[in-house]
Amino acid sequence: MKKVLMTTTIFSYLLITSFVSLVIITSCTKDKNENNASPPPKEVSLKNHPTFGNILVDKEGSTLYFSSNDANGQSSCTGGCETMWPVFNIDNLTQEKLGDGLSVGGFGSITTASGKKQLTYKGYPLYYFAPGGQKEAPGLTGGEASNDVWFVAKPDYTIMISNAQLVGNDGKNYQSNYTEGVGKTLYFTDGKGLTLYTFTKDSANNNNFTKPDFSNNTVWPIYETDQVVVPSTLDKALFGSIDVFGKKQLTFKGWPLYYFSADGLVRGNNKGVSVIMPGVWRVPVKNMTAAPVP
């Protein structure tokens, strides 16, 4: 009888010990699996593309785009355009929802004409490309250079293209040839959409405007950079830089590039086209004549 009781007691002890061990192992395995679980994908991140370098993508890896028609930072895509270029939006965007290399301070939000919320990056509304109404698959960049105004969204453009009406400091509308009239011009801006200019009295790789003490740089500031990151429709080799009294100034076809202070750091402003007289300060365009050799 004692032998049977002892055997039962030992069996019960072993059973309890095995159960406790199983609970501990299961708990440890669960904790380990939870610790090793992949974090949720970021809502917006940077992906290195073999052709375009770092581009913005959504959590599924789908490419995001800028439009040159959005010169003033508002969406100009309406009607059928909205079907082919759907807006991209994330509500309550926080730093935790962004991938490495992106800051929440670079993003904003607008409301489109049709009442949709749309996320912006560096002032550019963000879109998907959806040919035939079907959003393109992750990893594709089929919208690049569409109609010469749609480009993959990048964080490091130093030159972008705006497609907008020229409106001088005199309040008059100007065409691409600097005669009065209505019509959009495709011209260069910096990476934040601020208008750039060339000065007709400059010569090839020579800034003939800026004074050595930079006393007039407050009116026509030089575009200080020697980095060239451009949309695919532009030839990077046509850009360069020159030294201007110790500062680097970007050039295009030999023309030094400037800002105009009266534009007030406002996207879409191009008031400088009428200063002195129309055509003295010109917005740089793709097909402009190279600067003359002095």
Walk me through the structure.
- The chain has helices at 2-36, 80-84; strands at residues 44-49, 53-58, 65-67, 107-111, 117-121, 124-125, 150-152, 160-167, 173-174, 184-189, 198-199, 239-244, 247-252, 255-256, 281-282.
- The chain is of the alpha+beta class and 294 residues long.
- The longest helix has 35 residues, at 2-36.
- It is built from two helices and 15 strands.
- The protein has two domains: 44-152, no CATH class; 160-282, no CATH class.
Task: Write a concise keyword list for the protein shown above.
single chain, 14% helix, alpha+beta, 294 residues, 15 strands
Strand percentage lies at 15-25%
Overall 3D form:
globular
Number of discrete domains: 2
Order of helices and strands: HEEEHEEEEEEEEEEEE
Write the layout of secondary structure elements.
Blueprint: H1 2-36, E1 44-49, E2 53-58, E3 65-67, H2 80-84, E4 107-111, E5 117-121, E6 124-125, E7 150-152, E8 160-167, E9 173-174, E10 184-189, E11 198-199, E12 239-244, E13 247-252, E14 255-256, E15 281-282
Summarize the structure.
This protein is α+β, with helices and mostly antiparallel strands and about 290 residues long. It has helices at about 1-35, 80-85, and strands at about 45-50, 55-60, 65, 105-110, 115-120, 125, 150, 160-165, 175, 185-190, 200, 240-245, 245-250, 255, 280. Helix content is about 15%, strand content about 20%.
